[in-house]
Amino acid sequence: PPDGHVMGTAPLSMSDATIERFVRTKADWLTKHVARCQSRPRPEKLTYQTGETLMVWGRPYTLLVRHGGRASMALSGDIAALTVRPASTAGQREKVVREWYRAMLKTEIVRRLPAWEAATGLRAGSVQTKAMSTRWGTCNPKTGKLWFNVHLAEKPPECLEYIIVHELLHLIERKHTARFYGLMDTYMPGWKTVRALLNGKIAARSPEQDNVE
Q1: What are the backbone dihedrals phi and psi of residue 204, each rounded to the nearest 5 degrees, phi first?
Q2: Which of 53, 100, 102, 210 is deepest in the core (most CB within 10 A)?
Q3: 65, 49 in Cβ contact below 8 A?
Q4: Which residues does the chain have with pLDDT short of 70?
């Protein structure tokens, strides 16, 4: 992502002819997924200027950039106020926002993870966060370590719940097998809808919609 570039890896001892045959057998699959990747709407690259839209837990906030001596982020109403030095670059502003996301995400993981550990009978060995470009989370079954994408803080909270359950279940089922999806159905029956929301295939409900019976 986002351009649909494909990279293959193979043992050094494997011949080019064998590699080519393998790729040809996957041609239809590759074509379909490359097209899907390229057709997805691409979010605008933020430059972290006043007036841009910042997503926080699935809700849009208007970014307000203020100048000050100490970098910080704060929400007030529908405003996300970013305080930075006057000469700060877009990259420096992005780092401030990313670390703010990270802090919020860690807080929510600590708050939500124990309930899912109790529900599934599984326990994470440790939890870490990082910015990832192709995955929302990863799991190391050997160590029990779970990784969560910092950008989950931009998505509705139920998306974080989905990734928590998803990665916890990988502790006992490494691959996306029928058993894995059966466990997902058991512990989070509506997971497919949440996955579609996470991947931008359906829109999040607005606060106004939530107030309508």
Answers
A1: -75, 150
A2: 100
A3: yes
A4: 1-3, 37-44, 204-213
